[in-house]
Amino acid sequence: MSNSPAFPRSCDILVFGGSGDLALHKLLPALYHLHREQRLPADTRIFALARSTRALDDYLALAERHCRAQVSRDDFTLADWQSFAARIDYLAMDAAQSADFGRLRERLKHSETRVLVHYLATAPNLFTPIAQNLKLAGLAGPEARIVLEKPLGHSLESARAINLAIGQVFDESRVFRIDHYLGKETVQNLMALRFANTLFEPLWRSAYVDHVQISVNETLGVENRGAYYDHAGAMRDMVQNHLLQLLCLVAMEVPVHFDAESVRNEKLKILQALRPIGGQDVQDKTVRGQYSAGHIGGQEVPAYWFEKQVDNDSDTETFVAVRADIDNWRWAGVPFYLRTGKRMAKKCSEIVIQFKPVPHNLIGDGSGPANRLWIRLQPEERISLQLMAKMPGKGMQLEAVELDLNLAQAFSKNKRRWDAYERLLLDVIEGDSTLFMRRDEVEAAWRWVDPILAGWREHYQRPRPYPAGSNGPEQAQSLLELAGREWYS
Ligand SMILES: NC(=O)C1=CN([C@@H]2O[C@H](COP(=O)(O)OP(=O)(O)OC[C@H]3O[C@@H](n4cnc5c(N)ncnc54)[C@H](OP(=O)(O)O)[C@@H]3O)[C@@H](O)[C@H]2O)C=CC1
Ligand SMILES: O=C1O[C@H](COP(=O)(O)O)[C@@H](O)[C@H](O)[C@H]1O
């Protein structure tokens, strides 16, 4: 990441889809924190845009309700809210209609000396019309940036079409394809761990690593996003972006510089080296699941098909496990197991690097576990290294013990941890795209995902049921057991 100036230029932020789930739950609370901590340029204005007609006061009441719910009690004060709200305006407009952009330009009275951030928190089918309408309205000048939410399209073809259309309006340096996992502190810590410590890099390869596990498990269901999710599924919603980005950060080579192009060049090479999975292979290398009714934290939870706006005969997957292989020198023969699911037993995102056992057993019977590095991304940020130690007492018995680092506690105790969207919004304002996906990366990810989706359509139509509150379908265990391994959790 480049060293950013102490304060970015004056800025206008336009949130297309300003009344949607993402804007209300994530973007406005993030902007509130940035405002409260004086990290936004002083005269920043925020325009929330959506079709529904509502008075500004009604919109602000809606936004306040959500911010209160998302921001901790200690961080939410009426005075901060009121000064933040003074920055916000609401405009009812149809972003697919070019005529409505005239009204937007009028309201905005934009000056080209200000940075203009267009945040597209809408469905991807609006990305192309919005970009074209912005151009027609003269709101896509050199000071303007566009932020595109994931998943970008629903296939390689649709992603390419969007990228092409966006590229005709905004050059690549002004396109910010967001993947909020890259904004998480612990995810960035992964790069610090790898590239700022001599300890791990020599071991970070097939000679020493047996396999890697990347799990992003949620206890939440689809909440009020059934209409979107039922057409997307876990593969498009999570694997195509968040899980593949995590895989890239674990597997990539050391970049030449720590800047946007160098980091993204290395991530791209990993995506290009992923061994394709398609046709009948999907039966051996992937597991699709869908939650049935169950219990989480003592609460009864309905089956997926019972959720709002979900087809009651839906075959959409809410769980995916995949064995991915990276065909390059460093990772030949090292499987990367990816797993993500909704309504799982526990919320937990983690990366486990399982090292190989010692080459010759001098101590014990050789059946003990080998070193294992756990990188816990959430709920708590932790890194622990499993080492073998001698059990106290007579004789030489080995037992695994942990060197455990709680990252939140290791750094200033009373400091609030930034949310991913806070950091990424600031990066957009400052024009730093290191933590955003480049066009070719997104397309390479779809190039790997598309054949799996096609394989499923042909050979794996019904997802395996798993009870809400479990660890996913049994077949996900078999994916590892067949290779003499198991999921760690
Ligand atoms: N929600 C989340 O947690 C996450 C969402 N995303 C992505 O963010 C994007 C938005 O998701 P989400 O907030 O959940 O979606 P929602 O359906 O909750 O919100 C969509 C928003 O777009 C507005 N809208 C729809 N059509 C138009 C139009 N023609 N012109 C102007 N505004 C329009 C809607 O308001 P109105 O109907 O009044 O026009 C609403 O404000 C999607 O691409 C999604 O994949 C990514 C990560 C997480
Ligand atoms: O992008 C998405 O991410 C969330 C999970 O994000 P997290 O930061 O809470 O781990 C997921 O619930 C949602 O379905 C998906 O669209």
UniProtKB/TrEMBL annotation:
Pathway: Carbohydrate degradation; pentose phosphate pathway; D-ribulose 5-phosphate from D-glucose 6-phosphate (oxidative stage): step 1/3. NADP(+) binds at residues 51, 150. The active site is at 242 (proton acceptor). Keywords: Carbohydrate metabolism, Glucose metabolism, NADP, Oxidoreductase. It comes from the Bacteria. One of its GO terms (biological process) is glucose metabolic process. Pfam families: G6PD_C (PF02781), G6PD_N (PF00479). It catalyses: D-glucose 6-phosphate + NADP(+) = 6-phospho-D-glucono-1,5-lactone + NADPH + H(+). Its EC number is 1.1.1.49. One of its GO terms (molecular function) is NADP binding. InterPro entries: G6P_DH, G6P_DH_AS, G6P_DH_C, G6P_DH_NAD-bd, NAD(P)-bd_dom_sf. Substrate binds at residues 180, 184, 218, 237, 342, 347. One of its GO terms (cellular component) is cytosol. Residues 191-487 form the Glucose-6-phosphate dehydrogenase C-terminal domain. Residues 15-189 form the Glucose-6-phosphate dehydrogenase NAD-binding domain. HAMAP family: G6PD. Belongs to the glucose-6-phosphate dehydrogenase family. Catalyzes the oxidation of glucose 6-phosphate to 6-phosphogluconolactone. This is Glucose-6-phosphate 1-dehydrogenase. The lineage of its organism: Bacteria, Pseudomonadati, Pseudomonadota, Gammaproteobacteria, Pseudomonadales.
